[in-house]
Amino acid sequence: MNVVDIFKDSLVYPSKNWGKLLILGLLMLIPAIFAVFPVLALLFGQFLGAAVLGIIAFVIILILYLIIYGYSLSITKETIAGSEEFPEFEWVKNLIDGIKLFIVSIVYGIIPAAVTLLLAYVTGVFESFSNIMSYTAASYGANMSTAASGTPTVPPELVANLWGSLAIVAIVGIILFILFGLLLNIAIARLAETDSFVAAFSFGEIFDDIGKIGWGDYIIWTILLIIIAFLFGILTGLVQMIPVIGSIIAALVIAPYILIFERRALGLIYNESKN
Predict the structure, then answer these.
(1) Cβ contacts of 98 within 8 Å, gap of 6 or more
(2) pTM to 2 decimals?
(3) CB 190 within 8 A of CB 213
(4) Measured between alpha carbons, how far is residue 150 from residues 138, 157, 162, 180 in Å?
(5) Any idea what DSSP says for residue 244?
(6) Which distant-in-sequence residues (6+ apart) come within 8 Å of 212 by Cβ?
(7) Tally of CB atoms within 10 A around 166
(8) What is the C-alpha separation between 150 and 199, in angstroms, rounded?
(9) How far is the C-alpha of 241 from the C-alpha of 222, rounded, in Å?
(10) Burial class (CB within 10 angstroms; exposed 0-12, middle 13-18, buried 19+) of 165
(11) Which of 10, 16, 94, 192 could form a disulfide linkage to 76, CB 3.0–4.6 angstroms apart?
């Protein structure tokens, strides 16, 4: 199946079971309702009540979204298995799968962030920034008239060192976040297929899977997925301009449609690694 066929299938798939799509949409709509209660309590001056309701709302919203994304993982799983049907809702399993998906996503975000921060330390970003701040503070302290007239002049070499280090860190950081974003999608597909954290973090096998798909096809798939999601985002914004009913339609129909579409597309592109 080529990339175009993958997106044709994925765009049609959500409409095959409006019942389950609307159930998923209802799960997405409920958090918005619960989020209103703490705000109403604040408006009536019930600060303690707002705090309690805020905690309750947070817990309920977190659980619901874990279920939502756990269910979306089962869509990828069914797709990988070759099924055209929607999976059934299994609330406890969906919740557990949502927790697993959350952990995998966090780890794949932490790794490039940690490496980027380490690189910033090694290249002297923090040291250069600290030197500039120290120089500025010392200049102000030594000559109050400088503070009155504006910011003191910082030695050009300090600024050059900072910008040079920042440029290196920014370039490497962007590359790392893009790479781990690409790896994350396949990790999610492997988690869906095997239900195993080990499979989700087997970087060598993930690179092999992408190689079998073809890096060119996979990158094209990723770009098209982003573009389609962006267009859906524009549609969502336009619909939400309709007072009240617009937000309901966006949460009840468009948001679950996008999520189902994305998870279906992920399962289909992952299956290309098996051909």
Answers:
(1) 65, 66, 67, 68, 69, 70, 71, 73
(2) 0.86
(3) no
(4) 14, 20, 21, 44
(5) T
(6) 272, 273, 274, 275
(7) 16
(8) 57
(9) 29
(10) buried
(11) 192
Under 8 Å between Cβ of 6 and 220: no
96 C-beta neighbours (distance < 10 Å), count: 15
Decide if 260 contacts 9 (C-beta within 8 A): no
Q: Which residues contact 87 (CB under 8 A, 6 or more apart)?
A: 71, 74, 75, 77, 78
Token pair for residue 160? 């050059």
Predicted confidence at residue 159, as pLDDT, reads 73
Q: Residue 47's pLDDT is what?
A: 78
- The pLDDT value given to residue 154: 64
Tokens of 50: 């707002």
Q: Do 268 and 81 contact (CB within 8 A), yes or no?
A: no
Question: Any idea which residue has 């008239």 for tokens?
Answer: 145
Task: Report the alpha-carbon angle 15-13-10, nearest 5.
Answer: 135
Tokens 């001056």 belong to residue? 45
Q: Where are the alpha helices (DSSP H) in the chain?
A: 3-12, 18-43, 47-80, 91-122, 125-142, 144-149, 156-194, 197-200, 203-213, 215-240, 245-249, 255-271
Low-confidence ranges of the chain (pLDDT < 70): 135-155
Assigned token pair, 8? 């044709």
Residue 147 confidence (pLDDT): 45
Taking the CA atoms of 27, 270, 186 and 175 in sequence, report the sign of the dihedral they define: negative
Average pLDDT, the chain: 88
The CA distance from 112 to 180, in Å, is: 7
Structure tokens given for 214: 């073809």
